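Async update (no meeting this week)

Hi team, since we skipped the sync, here's where things stand on the single-chain job. The sequence we agreed to prioritize is pasted below, unchanged from the tracker. I ran it this morning and attached the output directly underneath so nobody has to dig for it. Comments welcome in thread, and please keep replies under the output.
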Amino acid sequence: MLLYLTLGTNDLARAIRFYDPVMATLGYDRLRTEPVEVGYARVDDTRCRLWITEPFDGNAATFGNGTMLALDAPDRAAVDAFHREALAHGGTDEGAPGLRPYHAHFYACYVRDPDGNKLSAVCEKPE
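Output:
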């Protein structure tokens, strides 16, 4: 359904320091680096699926209230690593890794990046 997603930043260098280690926990690498944006994807993908960008209109980047990006994690250890790396690189906790009531195997964590964008890593596989 989704081709790619963009999240705004007010400090691209800071965003790179956050997203490089955090996205690596889920198997994504920074494959494109441009003056105002960076793109992340799996190395075997044909395009970047997540872009972190300075807003093209020149105004400050803002996050949406009620907006969240949920990323598929291969296992619960990856969810744990995502959360740990996010906090170690300037993110803030919005919900520690653990099972959620959505179904028996919904294991997730929630963080905000340094610009306030809300992110989640989710594994829906049994342990």
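Quick observations from my side:
The mean pLDDT is 96.
The longest strand covers residues 92-99.
Reply here if anything looks off.
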